[in-house]
Amino acid sequence: MKNKSHVIPIHGIIPPMITPLLAEDKLDSKSLKNVIEHLIKGGVHGIFILGSTGEAPSLSYKLRYRLVEETCELVAGRVPVIVGITDTSFVESVNLANFAKEKKSTAVVLAPPYYFPAGQPELVEYVGHLVSEISIPLFLYNMPSFTKVYYEVETVQTLSENKKIIGIKDSSGNMLYYHRLLQLFKDREDFSILMGTEALLAESILLGGHGGVPGGANLFPNLFVRLYDAAQRKDLNEVRKLQDKVMRLGSTIYNVGKYGSSFLKGIKCGLAYQGILKSDFVAEPFHAFREKEKKIIIDYIKNSLSDYE
Predict the structure, then answer these.
(1) Which of 6, 27, 173, 298 could form a disulfide with 197 if both were Cys (CB 3.0 to 4.6 A apart)?
(2) CB 214 within 8 A of CB 44
(3) Residue-level pLDDT at 5
(4) 3-class secondary structure, 18
């Protein structure tokens, strides 16, 4: 696949931004500004809010709307803002999508609704009905580990016939699935294929993907931008060097603690240590790291921060 990033509507590094919180239902607006400026200074190509790393399912609707409004105001058109609208309620997804459009977001992102596992024909109808009620471009979000349901390749093909649907973010970690997407859309200049698994980012770009949504870019945005650029240039020596740093994140910051939430806790702890967040508060059902785990994160960042800049 030749490089089409200059025409693909959404491409590059688009971090799934964390949601700065001071309490269970209290957005930290000052830290939100800090995070956004940190990301944009790091060279990111867009910002994705209300995704998994943004704790979207744990946030009240009031807080989600406030986050959309404040993020769009703070970004002020400098990079695309993409808003997660995944919900168990069809109406709530539609309402949030239309609000995102009103606040000048660039696109919205939709994973299959969780809890009730929809069949593929049902999923095609569901997305079709939703798209008919919104006027903002939509990304599909393949996240089967959380939703239990894949957007199967044939389903993506069917849905992509609707010109409002402009791409897919794949967080399955299944490279065979990703290869099939690349093959299917190799001649489409209006459909983005983004990698959600950050350890596979470089590989996905070298294969012809259009970008990635790496959670670690919250901490080190420039690292992932440089990796993306190196993969675009097919500079394999630089890719290997930067990929090693990305993999070290997985074995250090993401590997503290013994639960799946450690990834999110580690990112927030690291941002708080850097002074970008006032608090590393994490919404229920989780909590921030205790002091023992925080010390591990802080010691690592203290000793390694310059290596990631």
Answers:
(1) 173
(2) no
(3) 44
(4) coil
